[in-house]
Amino acid sequence: MTKSLTPDDLLRAPKVLLHDHLDGGVRPRTVVELAAEHGYQGLPTTDVDALSAWFYDAANSGSLERYLETFAHTVGVMQTPEALARVAAECAQDLAADGVVYAEVRYAPELHVAEGMELPAVVEAVNAGFREGEKRAAAAGTPIRVGALLTAMRHAARSMEIAELAVRYRDEGVVGFDIAGAEAGHPPTRHLDAFEYLQRENAHFTIHAGEGFGLPSIWQAIQWCGADRLGHGVRIIDDITVGPDGEATLGLLAAYVRDKRIPLEMAPTSNVMTGAAASIAEHPIGLLRRLSFRVTINTDNRLMSGTSMTREFEQLADAFGYDLDDFRWFTLNAMKSAFIPFDQRLAMIDDVIKPGYAALRG
Hints:
By secondary structure, this protein is α/β, with parallel strands linked by helices. It has 17 helices and 10 strands.
C-alpha cells in the first residue's frame, strides 16, 4: 500500500474495542463535577487539567498494583444511578467520536454499591447510559454499538453473583463476564465455580491474565477456566523463543493459543505503564502480529493512560510502521472476537468495517 497515513486517516479508521474499563475512562471534568455533587472529598485536586495530569502520573509507575490504586477516585464518584448513567453515556460518545464502531466496556458492579445500590440497579443504570450514549452518537453522525462486560474482582468472593447477573441481563446489553484486579496471589481458578456456571449457560467470558503475572496465569485461564479471550495476555511472549536469525519457536502454550485463535486483548500504552512491556517499540504485539496470533488493540483505561484508540494506532504506526492494511487486520480480529452473535459480527464487518477501510484507501 502506498498511501501514507495521516492523523485524520487514523481518527476516521473504523475501530473495534474489546478491553476498556468504564471507571478507567471517565472525563476528568465529570470526576470533578460528580465529586462536588455527591460530596466526595478524596480528590487530590479539583482543577480539571491538574487532575487529568495527576491520574496519568500516578498510573505511570511501572506497577500494576499502583496503577489500580487510582481507581478509588473514579469509583468513588460512581455510586448513584445518575452518576453511572452519565459516565456510561459519555463513554459511548467519547468512543464514537474516536472512530470506534463497536465496543465492549467492562465494569465491576460490586464496586458501585457503597451508597446502597443493589447490583441489578447498577447494571440497569449503566445499560441505560450506554443506550443514551448510542443515541447521542448516532445523532452526531458517529454511530456506535456498546456492549457491557460485567467484571468480578479476583480478590473478592462475589464472582458467582456477578456471573449470574451477566446471564440475567445478557439480552439487555450485557454481552459477557470478566475477572480483574491484581493477578499475583489471586489465580483465576479461585473462581472456577463461576466459570463452570457460565459455560453451562452458554455464556461468554474473558479473563485478565498474563499482565501482572506470567504463563501460569494464562494457562489456568485457558485450560482450567475455559476463557474465550485473554485480557492482555502479554506474557505469552515468555513461551516464545526467537533465534539469532529471527526464527521464532513456540512453546506448547503459545502454540495452543495461536492454533485455537484465542484473542489477546492487548493495550500497549497501559502495558508499558504497568511494567508489562518495556516500551511501545518493544511491546510483544510486534512479534505476535508477525506470527499471526489473534491480536487486538485496546485502550484499557483511557483516563489513567491518557490515551484513545486513535493514539494507540498512532503509536503502533510509529513503532512498527503499520499501515491501514495492518489496522484493518487488527480491527477484523477484534470484531471476529466480539461476544455478540455471529451474524451481527459479520454484518459489522461487511457493512461498516470493510467499507470504512476501503473508503480510506480511496
